[in-house]
Design a protein that fits this description.
Layout (H helix, E strand, L loop, with lengths): L9 E4 L6 E4 L5 H6 L3 H5 L8 E3 L6 E6 L2 E5 L5 H8 L15 E2 L6 E2 L6 H10 L14 E5 L3 E5 L4 H123 L15 H19 L6 E3 L1 H10 L11 H26 L3 H22 L5 H4 L1 H16 L4 E2 L5 E2 L2 H15 L2 E3 L2 H8 L1 H15 L9 E3 L12 E2 L10 E8 L1 E4 L7 E4 L1 E7 L5
Parallel strand pairs: 15-19
Antiparallel strand pairs: 1-2, 1-3, 2-4, 4-5, 6-7, 8-9, 10-13, 11-12, 14-17, 16-19, 17-18
Helix pairs in contact: 3-4, 5-11, 6-8, 6-14, 8-9, 8-12, 9-11, 11-14, 12-14
């Protein structure tokens, strides 16, 4: 059980709500000791006890059951109280100003104001179950027995009341003094809190203003700094320009001394350097520069130049040129070209021979690369091998750097640009001179022999002039289709249209009227369509296909 405190209205409950004890009086510390273990002592009466605040009035109630309550309401002398309380162990006392009533449904006693110890002991001993209550506003109590007979005692207790009133007055004054002191402390703390709040508010405003001022200062400093940086950049640019100008002037002075003797050699070096720069490019830049021979404009011009040379090589098949009709018939059948009842016309023969020239060069080039043994074939073969290895290396090794990803592309561009620039050029001989490349020499002889089977040039000078075109035609054809088309990213593609294909004027070039297109098909495609991204929306055409058109055959 917790330690007793001086407080009012403690109720002691038993094993059930009907068996209880409630104490409403005051007890001294010596009396508390008699009730230090309420639960243990009160169990001697067969009850379990606990305290609750029950009544606002002073006094306590001790009851064995709802039919037999006992209430005590009057502080008596120590002996009287001890005699009375001894029957009800472990009860907390609270102070009561004056008397209590003792009653029972069958036996009731009202005990007046403070009696002597002996009288209290007599009354309590005769009536172990009792309730004491204050029945009179004045001093004195009555004691009745059995509801009819009784007796009463009256004594004067003014001194006790005055002493108690004086004590309460003193306590009230002390509490008022404490209350005033607490109120003053409260006002002081409130004022101090308000002062602190005002100080914090003022300091916050000042801080905000300082922040705004600092922000303005920072913006001003930023503007000043930017202005100074701009001036520094201008100064650096001027200094760089001055250095460049000075360097160029010195270079010009140096070159002026050698200009007459090195003019031609200098021009060749510039061209060679431009080619190297175009072939190398930047690590991730696949575009060709304007001065690169592999850029789109230059490439288109070189393709059209090749078309013109092939046309001149075949000749116009007119005056001074004999046509071998039997051989022409064989080649037309080989390429599945249809002819009319009058036989093939000159334009069809000319187109077929141009197609045959390109196909013959492809055949000779494939045979040359398959045999190997030359620098061009070895470089081309190892280029493909290295490109495949680099692609596998980029895919199978951890990393995301751009240089590795594009390494195979840059290698392809570099090697093909090199072969496109110098592939099959003249070779040095043992006498430090130059001679024609072996492949160009043999392929030219073979191509001239094949073409002589289909047409014969009577004029020997004209014949030599035409045959001198074959080395250049072969060299440019191989460089374009085998090397330079692969320099572009993505690679340039070419497409041949098969016979009887529908005429598409956006992709083809030939002799026809727009009104006749619906009735025309491809007789033979003698130069391919050249472009890239054919299977995508952003496809690009460099040169359209050259075709010979023919009318659609009608059936009854």
């Amino acid at each position: 059980m917790d330690m007793y405190q001086e407080q009012r209205g403690k109720r002691i409950y038993g094993d059930d709500p009907q068996n209880s004890r409630t104490y409403r009086g005051s007890m001294t510390s010596s009396q508390h000791s008699q009730y230090s273990n309420t639960e243990t002592n009160y169990q001697s009466h067969g009850h379990r006890t606990r305290f609750v605040d029950k009544l606002p009035l002073p006094g306590f109630l001790v009851a064995n059951s709802h039919k037999n309550p006992h209430t005590y309401r009057e502080p008596t002398t120590n002996s009287s109280a001890e005699g009375n309380y001894s029957q009800y162990s472990n009860v907390e006392a609270s102070h009561q100003a004056y008397g209590h009533r003792i009653n029972n449904p069958k036996k009731a006693y009202t005990y007046g104001v403070s009696t002597t110890n002996s009288l209290a002991e007599e009354n309590y001993s005769q009536h172990p179950n009792f309730e004491m209550a204050n029945n009179f506003p004045t001093s004195g109590y009555s004691v009745t027995k059995g509801g009819t007979a009784g007796f009463s005692f009256r004594r004067n207790s003014c001194k006790d009341h005055e002493s108690m009133l004086h004590e309460l007055t003193n306590r009230n004054q002390i509490l008022e003094v404490k209350n005033k002191k607490l109120e003053e402390e409260k006002r002081s703390l409130t004022n101090e809190l308000q002062s602190l709040h005002n100080a914090v508010t003022i300091e916050g405003r000042e801080s905000n203003q300082k922040i705004l001022d600092l922000q303005g200062t920072i913006e001003s400093l930023k503007a000043i700094n930017e202005e100074k940086e701009e001036k520094i950049r201008d100064l650096e640019n001027r200094q760089a320009q001055d250095l460049v100008v000075k360097s160029l002037q010195e270079l010009i002075k140096e070159k002026e001394v050698e200009v007459h003797s090195l003019r031609k050699h200098n021009s060749e070096l510039r061209e060679e350097a431009s080619h190297y720069q175009s072939a190398l490019g930047e690590a991730t830049n696949f575009q060709m520069g304007d001065d690169d021979q592999n850029n789109a404009v230059q490439l288109k011009n070189d393709i059209e130049k090749l078309q013109d040379m092939i046309e001149d090589y075949v000749t116009n098949l007119k005056i001074g040129v004999n046509i071998n009709s039997e051989k022409i018939k064989e080649i037309l059948e080989y390429y599945k070209c249809e002819t009319g009842p009058r036989g093939p016309d000159r334009l069809l023969i000319k187109a077929t021979l141009q197609f045959h020239v390109i196909k013959s060069i492809f055949f000779l080039a494939e045979d040359f690369f398959s045999k190997g043994g030359s620098l061009e074939s070895e470089i081309a073969g190892r280029r493909k091998e290295l490109s495949d290895l680099l692609e596998s290396f980029s895919a199978e090794r951890l990393g995301n750097d751009e240089a590795t990803r594009v390494s195979s592309i840059k290698l392809r561009q570099l090697i093909n640009a090199t072969l496109g620039n110098r592939g099959f050029s003249q070779m040095k001989n043992h006498e430090n001179g130059f001679m024609e490349h072996q492949f160009i020499t043999s392929a030219s002889e073979q191509l001239n022999q094949w073409m002589d089977q289909y047409r014969t040039i009577k004029d020997m000078e004209k014949k030599k002039e035409v045959e001198r075109l074959s080395p250049e035609i072969i060299r440019d054809t191989v460089r374009l289709f085998y090397f330079r088309f692969s320099v572009q990213e993505p690679k340039i593609e070419y497409c041949w249209f098969s016979p009887n294909s529908k005429i598409q004027k956006n992709y083809m070039k030939g002799q026809w009227d727009d009104e006749e297109i619906e009735n025309l098909t491809v007789g033979i495609c003698y130069f391919p369509l050249i472009g890239k991204n054919f299977d995508k929306e952003n496809f690009k055409i460099y040169t359209p296909a050259k075709v010979y058109p023919q009318e659609i055959k009608r059936r009854n």
